[in-house]
Design a protein that fits this description.
It is a single chain. The protein has 808 residues and is an alpha+beta fold. It is built from 14 helices and 46 strands. Helix 7 crosses helix 9 (457-472) and helix 11 (539-549) runs parallel beside helix 12. The chain is globular. This is Probable glucan 1,3-alpha-glucosidase.
Length: 808
Amino acid sequence: MRVKIDEDQSLGPRKKRFEVPDVIVSEFLEKKLWLQRMKEEKNEDGSGTLSVVYLSDGFEGVIRRDPFEVFVRESGKKGKKVLSLNLNGLFDFEQLRDKKEENEDWEERFRSHTDSRPYGPQSISFDVSFYDADFVYGIPEHATSLALKPTKGPGVEDSEPYRLFNLDVFEYIHDSPFGLYGSIPFMISHGKSRGSSGFFWLNAAEMQIDVLGPGWNDEFSSVLMLPSDQKRVDTLWMSEAGVVDAFFFVGPGPKDVVKQYTSVTGAPALPQLFAVAYHQCRWNYRDEEDVYNVDAKFDEHDIPYDVLWLDIEHTDGKRYFTWDKSLFPNPEEMQKKLAAKGRHMVTIVDPHIKRDDSYFIHKEASQKGYYVKDATGKDFDGWCWPGSSSYLDMVNPEIRSWWADKFSYDKYVGSTPSLYIWNDMNEPSVFNGPEVSMPRDALHYGNVEHRELHNAYGYYFHMATADGLVKRGEGNDRPFVLSRAFFPGSQRYGAVWTGDNSAEWEHLRVSVPMILTLGLTGISFSGADVGGFFGNPDTELLVRWYQLGAYYPFFRAHAHHDTKRREPWLFGERNTDLIKEAIHIRYMLLPYFYTLFREANASGVPVARPLWMEFPADEKTFSNDEAFMVGNSLLVQGIYTQRAKHVSVYLPGDQSWYDMKTGTAYKGGATYKLDASDDSIPAFQRAGTIIPRKDRFRRSSTQMENDPYTLVIALNSSKAAEGELYIDDGKSFQFQKGAYIHRRFTFSDGKLTSSNLAPVTTGHSKFASGCTVERIILLGLSPEPKDRLRRTRIQYGNIDRPGLFRVR
């Protein structure tokens, strides 16, 4: 259900409030709905009339006029509530107005900065209640627990609300409600009795959200509240500007809520296969010789990698789309040498444009009037890496199109088809601005104040960059763009990461709930800097981070230029082997990860999942954010303490789990205290699943393309299992035209069969693979009696043909 509340335009407000464009997907906007006529009914307590409209099977939307409330309930007068807006009467909408008195001061001052606030206060607030919820989750980005802790209420120590305001945060602290680099005002609730529901407010201004603890309003109970035996979690949402454009998602399962949310904001893009592999990054690889040495060392130590990254120092004086010719005199040749091994390169392109009349980007942008303006109407001039800089007004579609053209090979001189892009500092970061960002009274396209769209600025920059790579490849090449800032819809354009973390055990620990929260809010392709961006990790922490990072959806090592070099071979032979083994696990599991990315692309369901997404009735999973699921088949438990001797792992469900390393079976529904070995972290395959692997190690994922598959079959108590494998060309958009293979493997009654999941249609593109399944591993066979499951023989050809595996 979508609810919009704005000022009455017939009353002539001073300006039109900003509504965020280009977030809601066209499929949703263009979908025609047939709604039954709204019906009226008396409220049970006689307090007024309710207007009721049919939503979907089993649910109704209800408006109570006086006192005002909007809610979703199960069908029928006595249907249980699911979600409610303004149950507690906290709705407040500051309307735009003229100053009451000439000397009325609307300005706000922050240190040396003054916000002119020419339109005065225009904030909005309301409460949202989630019924039958045990916990609420979401609203990234914060370095805190997966289950959101109360910020107000009895027993809650001093706490700020959860803040959503994109900022360039230097060495952020963990376990804090302080806002970081991105903002997604989408919250999910979950409880054992009902399941899940979700609430999304499409608004790009600064937002603060309180999670209200039990008993928060006992002393001042609102007259709005009616007696109810339904428990709930109350929240308070506050925004500086904008309109109410709210979406209610009824679930009832956690995957249903995510699917409903991504049906509005778009499903995650399917990345190229290379992007799912391992990335090696540093601020900065110094020059071409450094690049070649790092590349050669990976080969020398038999460690695969797919992407080598260049930070800001590769440019000519921080002018993006350029190269420092003394350090990188032959960039095309450098990229081609990496590409010959199936490897790729990423360079950084940030939104601040150096104010230099000899710089072609600045000269053209200045002439065309493409920069954000300050409050006086002049091009905004802020300070960032290049020094004096201006910022492109990416909310304007014309400017986004102009920017996208800059990625063509003739304009980005020195770029090749194997070069992809990294957008950093796009919150936007302004070193001499208030809170290291852009002044709120800066002006954008359509005379929109920056305060109204701040949280979406990086989103539009990400969008334009991704569109540029699509243009560059003439619509044939899937883009790869990593962005630090994000907003609802960012999942359609590429990956994000959790920003400038530190080489601390606490940051290793908090990376898991941060990545899980991003997945719950649509962004599947995310990760944290392995090893920590700031500081020098001790060897044990670095190894543990690689072991965990191998299961992140986005797997990249990165470090600050003031840190010691930390390539995998610099810590002694034993630690090199441990890091290499962690990276090998990622490459072995690439077929499984890629299949999950396709599932995310088709349904919105994330790659990395909280345990409760797969086990929604198990209360022990609801606040567990030390372990996570990779798809529905793997459970991973990190080790987050130094010199750990043991690690506790909770394995949910009533079926067994198999240790990925040893094959040892553990019964579900129990917590195990396991020895903490230095060579791996605990990871388990769920009984009843089949995982596809590729076990031959190459230099890069590209070189694994024709390698055969291994199927790992983990039998459940019925001696059955199933799993999926998705394959396409790994790089183009042809999969959207049907050029892919999607198989379901089913093991039952001693037979392994393969069936086609791809729709059978005519006129579509075709994709064929010469890969075979060369090996099957069966987990969970009974040692006695010596039955026909003892030996395995494959009577099967290519992976793209339907067939029957006979196991005997």
